[in-house]
Amino acid sequence: MQKIYASPKAALEGVLFDGMTIMSGGFGLSGNPESLIPAIRDAGVKNLTVISNNCGADGFGLWMLLNNRQIKKMISSYVGENKLFEQLYLSGELELELNPQGTLAERIRAGGAGIPAFYTRTGVGTVVAEGKPVEEFEGHKYVRETWLRSDLSIVKAWKADEAGNLVYRKTARNFNPNMATAGKITIAEVEEIVPAGSLDPDNIHTPGIFVDRIIKSTINEKRIEKLTVREKETA
Q1: Is the model's pTM score more than 0.90?
Q2: Mean pLDDT, to the nearest integer, of 125-152?
C-alpha cells in the first residue's frame, strides 16, 4: 500500500472530523509534529479532544489549535509555559484532564497494546484518584486507570522507509512511539524518507504496521522552549 503523501494537507484528507480525538507526540517542543499541526488548524475542525503531554508553547505547536478555539478538551500532564492554556482552563473555556506524566504514558501504551485498564500506586489518596476504583494488592492501595486511544495519532520521526518503519532521534522519541500504536489512523511526518528495507531492523522504533500515512516534514524548526546556559567562567 502506498503510504507516502505529497503534503500534510493531502495526508489529512478524509481523516479529520469535528469532535474527534487526536494524539499528538512531543514533549515541550521536542518531537512535535510541526508540519501536521498547522494543517489541522487550516482544516478548521473543531470540538477536538487532544491527548498530548502539553499543549505547545506560546505561538507554536498545539498552541495554534488552542488559539483558533478548535480544542474542547486536553488530556495532558503539563500546562507549562503556555499562558493561553492556563487562561482558557481558568475561564472554563477548556476542559482539562490532568494526569501524572508516567500515568499518561502508560495509559497511551495500554491503548496501543489493547489493555483496557491497569492499576498504579501513583495518585492514590489525591484528587487524581477521585471517582476511580481503588484496590489493595500486597498491602498497598492502587488506583485503576483506563487506556487512551485516538481517532488519529500524529507523530514526528527522524527517518521512515517507504513501508512506514520509523526511527526517532534522541529526546524527540518521547511520547511518539506509544502514540503511534494507539491511533485508529497514524500519520508520521519525518525529516527523511529512505527506500524500504534500508533501515537496520534493530534500530527501528515503530514498525511500519502501525503507520498508515507518511509525509516529509515541511517545518523542522526544533525550537528550544526555555534555554538555560551556564555563565562563562572567568580565566
Answers
A1: yes
A2: 97
Higher pLDDT, 170 or 29: 170
SS3 for the chain is CCCECCCHHHHHCCCCCCCCEEEECCECCECCCCCHHHHHHHHCCCCEEEECCCCCECCECCHHHHHCCCEEEEEECCCCCCHHHHHHHHCCCCEEEECCHHHHHHHHHHHHHCCCEEEECCCCCCHHHCCCCEEEECCEEEEEEECCCEEEEEEEEEEEECCCCEECCHHHHCCHHHHHHCEEEEEEEEEEEECCCCCCHHHCCECHHHCCEEEECCCCCCCCCCCCCCCCCCC
CA pair distance 21, 15, nearest whole angstrom = 11
Q: What are the structural domains of the chain?
A: 8-114+148-216 (3.40.1080.10)
**Number of Cβ atoms within 10 Å of the Cβ of 43:** 16
3-state secondary structure 167-180: ECCHHHHCCHHHHH
Q: Could you report the per-residue pLDDT of 181-215, keeping only the tens digit for each? A: 999 999 999 999 999 999 999 999 999 999 999 99
